[in-house]
Amino acid sequence: MSEAPKPIVVDQPVTITVNGAAIQAQKGDLLIDACERAGTYIPRFCYHPRMNPVGMCRMCLVDVDTGRGPALQPSCMLECSEGMTVDTENEKVKKAQDGVLEFLLINHPLDCPVCDKGGECPLQDTTVGYGPGESRWVEEKRHYEKPIAISETVQLDRERCILCDRCTRFADEVAGDPLIHFMGRGANTEVNTFPDEPFASYFSGNTVQICPVGALTAKPYRFKARPWDLEEVASTCTDCAVGCSVTVQSSRDEVLRINGVDNDAVNWGWLCDKGRFGFEAIGSPDRLQGPLELHGDDLVAIHWSDAVAKAAALISEGLRSGGPQGLAVIGGARLTNEAAYAWTKLIKGALGSDNVDAQLGDGLPAELVLGLPGATINEACTPGGTIIYLGPDPKEALPTLFLRLRHAIVEDGARLIELTSTESSLTNLAAASLLVRPGETASAVRAIRGGGGDAGGADVEQVRRAIDVLSGDGPVTVLIGRTSAAESPQTVVAAAEELMTLDGVRFLPLLPRSNVRGALEAGMSPGLLPGRVRRSEAAAWFGQAWPTIPQADGLDTAGILAAAAAGKIDTLILLGADPLADFVDRELAERALTGARSVIVVDPFLNESARRANVVLASSAFGEVSGTVTNIEGRVQRVTQKVTPPGTARADWELACDLGEALGHDLNFDGVEAIWAEFQDLSPVHAELSLEALEDPANIDGLLAVAPTEVQSEEPLDSATDSADDSDGASAEDPSDAVADPAESEVGDAAQVAEPEETDGLELVSSPDVLRYVAANDQVVIPATDAYAFRLVARPDLYDGGTLLSHSPSSASLVKEAVLTLNPLDFEKLGVTTGAAVRVSNGARSILIPVEPSASVPRGVAACGVNLSGVAVSRLIDSSSLVTDVRIEVQA
Amino acid sequence: MNATPHIVTSRWETPDAHTLEGYQRSGSYSGYEGIRAALNIAPSAVLEQVRQATVLGRGGAGFPAGTKWGFCPPGVWPRYIVVNGDESEPGTYKDRVLMERDPHQLIEGCLIAAYAIGAAQVFLYVRGEMAHAQERIAAALNEAYANNLVGKNILGTDFSVDIVLHWGAGAYIVGEETALIESLEGNRGMPRLKPPYFPAAKGLYMAPTIVNNVETLANLPWLMCHGVAAYKATGSEASPGTRLVAVSGHVNTPGVFEVAQGTTTYRELFYSEQYGGGIRNGNELKMFIPGGASAPWFFPEQVDLPLEGRTVGAAGSMLGSGAIVVMDDTTDAVKACLRIVRFFARESCGKCSPCREGTTWEEKILRRIMDGHGRPSDLDLLLDIADNISPGPYPVASHPEAGLEAVPFPPRQTTICPLGPSSVAPITSALRRFRHEFEAKITKRDLIPLSVEPVGGRS
After folding, report:
1. Are residues A549 and A617 in the same domain?
2. From CA A422, how far away is CA A437, in angstroms rounded?
3. I need a labelling partner for B219 at 20 to 30 A (CA). Which of A585, A848, B77, B403 fits?
């Protein structure tokens, strides 16, 4: 458990005396933290550096003199002040510590030999370190039923509980889900849920991690290992794009537990339950053990050499008949940065196709993501700042970001303006919550900027409040993403362009899928090359290092699928993507898979789309590969291999190299370090970001990839220097490194590159400009709904039917069934009852789905989660239209 | 002491004193004249009068109300007044009678306090079990609202205040002011740690809050009507005025009495016909609790002490809530000790470890000793558990025979609030004085108290 004091800035130093030594502390810092920073640990149970202190367990009592004589005081409640004298180890303190530990142990069952916490238990450790040798208790201990399930994944043993209030405080203060609480009184106090209400919180697993005893245990880990048998590595969660720091723990080559690590810039030690418990999918028996090939109607296992040869043959066949534009790659967000770069280099730099898109139609234009002035999570959560939120419900899409936002608003006085189509987890926290008609966010933004109009139907009072909030001081951060997959990204772009002109505004893009930002930074988007540069502007720069450069901008996922459906795609590579489940328009995805001449799938699982492949290449998953990933902020963090992939599954970057070799293009990579080194040298925004720097303990929170300078005039000088430095540094490390090659060998091979300075290119070609988003100011006119139609909102749901949850036995039961949510008043209008199945159609296609009422959905709107079990709402979405209007008919 | 004025009890004999008409007609001052007098002068002048009169808090700690009011940080609004009517210490029942018999007096006191500190909202927190008191106050509040004595523009002035009646749910700990505030906010009644949560600075809803006892506020109308000099004419210099004491236990005429503060002695209270009327059956006094179940015990040597906070504190106990429990020589000290410890174990809120676990442990050991399963080591164990809840020498009365000095009040604590240390009071008091009774129960398995002659004689 990493529960070190959170980092602080010391700007008001005071001198306090701790055990006779004078130390400098920040005025107002809690004494318990100040002492620990100075190397004196004070034992504690209830205190947690990321939660408000309560001073309940009394373990941290120390002898403090603030001028009125020494007295025992809880150091977790005392703020440092000038001249404070503290003794943490005199006889008085020791007696109190002995006493408190004896009290805590009298009713503790001491069933350590069968307790999962035994071996890593703060109560054990503190007893050894600070407690009495034996107990004087001879009475009967407290008894409760052992253990009781308080949620699908968390079990509670009340006998072991020492009532420290950590779990209950977390649930109430941090998660905002006060579903567990103290009950009873005195020695009969117990933690429990309310009758018939489970601890159904997306963040329940954190209570298990912060429990100082074995009272709370999680189903996936119970009785799986002893702590001393576990090995662990530091890594980064890749379930969503927030990038929570984690430690991956395994025993006998099997991942058994994921715990949160305190990353001050990102997750503060918290994780969502999906990220914490989803690891079970890694060891799932359903994982692909090796490559498969289509034989007749069946996919059968083959050898790797045959599989790679077959895939290479399909690709070169396609290239021969249709050229580079017939080759397309969908996916890449599941990959590491290194794998993404290797694949970009293979597809764009060796085979010359620009039809590469890591997003599945549910993201934002890459230029917007990479080209707007960026904000970090910490900047967005600046105390007293203003947050404009237009995106998916963060609790469903980016759960720990929700915790950070909630803290910023509830504890730090940040003010939130929310623009949404249905009420979200932020609605009750918002200073102004604008309920906007789906697709009309831009007009709401115009209204809060004082431009008038009908504000997309938002309440006038809320608009007035938003204007009021915006007129205040403090930085403004826009958190921007897709509220609904049923709306075109154009509606979000229009809103973003309205906000770009705010003074000093910064943007934090909210994208679904783990390493999507890393994939975009690595160039996995049509029109882009690695390092946030446009293909059109960076051709010369990359021409020095790559054999070829795509001749024209390629297609995005929607374009690729449309082209495939029209028979124009020869080879479709699905790189950890399942368009049938994940693309917003399922109908198009189905036609595309049928229309593509050949489909190659690279995936750890045989997903729905993979079943329609010609060749399936089994790839490694989280915990099985090392490298780096990039979160929504552009923060680069490490992921680390802990276990071996099942069967003969291979890392994604290795597959790129294998295919390259089979196609006659040696990518020249002997490991992820080599890939990173080349990427770092070519990317204008990763120049400072070496793997060595990431290993530095000072950069434990990861490093941001930032544009080198915004001052245009200095750029040529800078980049020339950079390039020279880079090649020096690279040759010093590894003379055979790919970076040294461009000037010598590879450029020579690259016949297609139109580049005059072939040999001395490095000095003469300056690194390309990092792209900056320029408003297109396209007119987006949202059509009016007719009186009988409902406008569809397809919103993300944390417990969706994705690969991860459906292959995690402990969490699989949490996957929600798809329902259509309507305003209760619309129930009357339609004449339906709760649970009744209705037919929902978009004119061309229809689905049958049960309905439920909720006042959180405005009238005229029909809301549904995407990718839930049961019905695919994506059947109704046409990716080419701005909004999705549907008719709802009652089934007789 | 016949000259003791009736400051707060002047209407107790008036059958309809709980009505507005009865309140205004009877008593030692005219009802709602106090607030009229206050409204004629500036709020700061009212505060100054209360300060000069040294109106001591009657809830337990005896802190001067005027000084407490002055702790409100200047310029911070809103401010609240919370009336602590959660009187629930064993033996304490003075506030209940005040609320039942003279509710308007309390309401008027609230108005004066609200005017003085500038509060527009008063919360009257009444213990859940006191149904009669709640009904009387509710009826009185309705009358007062109807007659423009509470609410908007009181008596035609621009002074407005609302009084909210809140029923407790029956927890002793809610008598602790920060726990009461938590309870009012809708949370579990658990104390907040002070610092940082001194209610005057950060109280109800984190706003400045003055928590006053019922009796404290009931003094204010009389004070405003008769002035500071008249108020200070009674009682001692340090403890002027009167105070209510609830005498219970082995006296002939137990009850609530209004006595001059600081001058009346325990002897008068127990033996005067006006008050206790002597120990029952002519028995000898064995011990008495001078200030509620949480106070260390006194013994016959302390019976001539006056009811004065500092004197009693120096002698090793406290005036506390004014509950005096008299125990004669037929009392089993071990059983009395268990009875009180059991109360605190049941009422511990469970928030901090030493109180939650320690009080129950003490109870279990005492229970075992009472049941004849005590061990000789249990007595030192009890004292050491007590020391882990309340470290250092615990306040206790002197024992001249044994040559033991008094340890002055208050005790130190490893707990958040004084409930845990309160459970220590009977243990240290009884063990220091009557260790032989405990030992007899342990070594001789003698379950009959030594000092008691069993009915029918011992065979």
Report:
1. yes
2. 9
3. B77
* Strands across the sheet containing A292-295: A298-301, A292-295, A615-618, A598-603, A571-575, A327-331, A356-357
The reply to whether residue B346 touches residue A182, judged by beta carbons under 8 angstroms, is: no
The whole domain housing A371 covers 367-509
Q: What is the pLDDT of residues B218-270, one digit of tens each?
A: 999 999 999 999 999 999 888 899 999 999 999 999 999 999 988 899 999 99
Calpha distance A199→A192 (Å, rounded): 9
Is the previous residue joined to B90 through a cis bond, with omega within 30 degrees of 0? no
Do A359 and A394 belong together in one domain?
A: no
DSSP category for residue A509 = E
**What are the residues whose beta carbons fall under 8 Å from the beta carbon of A3, sequence distance 6 or more?**
A48, A49, A210, A262, A269
Question: Which domains, and CATH codes, for chain B?
Answer: 20-232 (3.40.50.11540), 242-328 (3.10.20.600), 333-457 (1.20.1440.230)
Rounded Cα–Cα distance for residues B173 and B179 (Å): 7
From the list B196, B358, B416, the residue facing A103 with the nearest CB is: B358
**Cα–Cα distance between A320 and A598 in angstroms, integer?**
14
- Same domain for A563 and A651, yes or no, is yes
Which one-letter amino acid corresponds to residue B219? N
* Residue where a domain stops, chosen among A461, A492, A509: A509
Task: Give a yes or no: residue A719 inside a domain.
Answer: no
pLDDT digits (tens, 9 = 90+) for B274-307: 999 999 999 999 999 999 999 999 999 999 999 9
Instruction: Specify the number of domains making up chain A.
Output: 4
A548 with A662, same domain? yes
Same domain, A438 and A334: no
Cite the DSSP H helix spans in A122-164.
122-130
Q: Single out the residue in A708, A734, A765 at which a domain terminates.
A: A708
Q: Is A704 on the interface with B (CB under 8 A)?
A: no
How far is the C-alpha of B324 from the C-alpha of B265, rounded, in Å?
12
ipTM of model: 0.92
Task: List C-alpha distances in Å: A487 to A437, A441, A724.
Answer: 11, 11, 47
Whether residues A329 and A458 share a domain: the answer is no
Nearest by CB to A96, from B351, B391, B416: name it.
B391
Q: What residue of B is the nearest CA neighbor of A54?
A: B193
Compare CB distances from B360 to A79, A163, A186 and report the shortest one's residue: A186
